[in-house]
Design brief:
Elements: E1 2-11, H1 17-34, E2 37-43, E3 46-54, H2 55-66, E4 71-82, E5 93-96, H3 103-112, H4 117-123, H5 127-144
Parallel strand pairs: 2-5
Antiparallel strand pairs: 1-3, 1-4, 2-3
Length: about 140
């Protein structure tokens, strides 16, 4: 049986796009050995990652993630069995959302760096359909590019 975990976290420091790409590439190589696929999204000091694969292997990856000093405030949003992968042909896809450049963007970033409470509140009212819709859209657009 396959398993799916989606978590969000706060980055311990800023990441630029090449850094996110390197992180995803290293994760992809390790995850491929464990038959774990997914996607890593980073923006405004926050990570969101979806992992899919055999339950024990996903749990092993999550243990490593929970010990990683590059982020904190790790909040598991979805932790469930699944019969199908959203990212079956991906080792670990990634997207880095550009960092803010204006003062008003900086203020929004400061708000985003608070412990993922806004995300948690939004997701409490039925996260599955919304999140998976966004992730499917991302997967489909990335496959075309």
């Amino acid at each position: 049986m396959l398993h799916r975990v989606l978590y969000v976290s706060t980055a311990a420091h800023r990441f630029d796009e090449p850094s996110v790409a390197r992180l995803a590439e290293r994760s992809s190589a390790k995850n491929r050995l464990l038959d774990v696929t997914g996607v890593l999204i980073y923006g405004r000091g926050q990570f969101m990652q979806l992992l899919e694969g055999p339950k024990d292997n996903v749990r092993a990856v999550m243990r490593t993630i929970n010990e990683d000093p590059r982020h904190f405030n790790i909040l598991t949003v979805i932790d469930e069995p699944t019969s199908v992968r959203l990212f079956d042909s991906w080792g670990m896809g990634h997207l880095a959302i550009p960092e803010p450049t204006s003062d008003s963007d900086q203020e929004q970033t400061a708000d985003a760096e608070r412990p993922c409470s806004a995300i948690a509140a939004m997701l409490e009212s039925g996260p599955g359909d919304v999140i998976f819709g966004i992730l499917r859209h991302f997967r489909d657009k990335a496959a075309v590019a």
